[in-house]
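Exercise 7.
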Amino acid sequence: MKILKFIGILILLVIAFFLIAGLVMPKEFTYEEEIVINQPEEQVFDYIKHLKNQDNYGTWNQIDPNMKSTYEGEDGTVGFTTFWESENWQVGKGNQKIVDIKEGESISTEIRLDGWDDPMLATMSTEPIGDNQTKVTWKNEGHSPYPFNAMALFFDMSDDFEEGLENLKEVLEAQETVVKDDELAALVAQYNQTKAALIAEVEGLSEAQLTFKPSPDQWSVGQCVDHIIKSEKGLLDMLQTAMTEQKQISRDSIMVSDEELMGFIVNREQKAKAPEAIQGENVYKDAQTAIKDFTAQREASIDFVNNYSSEQLRNQVLESPSGYVDAYQFLSFISGHGTRHTEQIKEVKANANFPK
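Solution. The predicted structure, written as tokens, is:
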């Protein structure tokens, strides 16, 4: 009986200690660790901005191999969320959502644990410090509710962050260093920018707005989107054939610069009638479907770009609607064509009779 009494008193003392310690311990916490990884910043950032990759280096992700995980959204973009559930008390149940991405600089995520009212904010940032060297900083801050804040006396989460960064360093330095192709990166950026510009003009439009035609011989917004999608697919198929056949055409055949080609395609004063096969049709009744179809085609185009180096694209010459160009110019032409008709969409929306 004395032993049971002693154990009971001991348990009460432990509980009392935590309750008292919780009153004086800070409830706000911040953990921050950093490491230098011998890889280019672009390669490092592209890896850490995808939450699924945390399974390869995150300390908590590796505690329970039987942890159940589900996902929502597109990894590497704002809004992507990973949900987990584990019977291991160290892992528990919760979710992590990307709330902010500063491309090439930092990614911030919001972590919510089941049973905790306040989310934690985790930020991973990168900074180039030399040739193929990147400093990675991992910071976690939040609010620990009373009396759980007293656990900080016994558990130092800094060790978990330090171990996670060591794992990240090992994973990334085992990869082959990817040499940055600035010209190719510029082309991909161009595709993403023109994609965002079109989506901004179409998003939220009603069926009446999508199908409105300023005059019988002018296209509606929906027809412009349909034409962009058809044209992009047709031109990309043409380029795919050229890259596969690899006909040897001299670069001396090219009579137009990159700037001249882009100036030609985006100039709305120069009118051209599209072939029957790629004429725009009023097939869209809602903006969401139009954006979904356009995004799918644009992502296919970007995937195509990423299959080659800028050198490979520059070395392949083919005939285009603007004469002989290299494959890089041809891809710029496709993007510029989207810009041309995005401007046309703006003209339609600016019409005095455009539905409100």
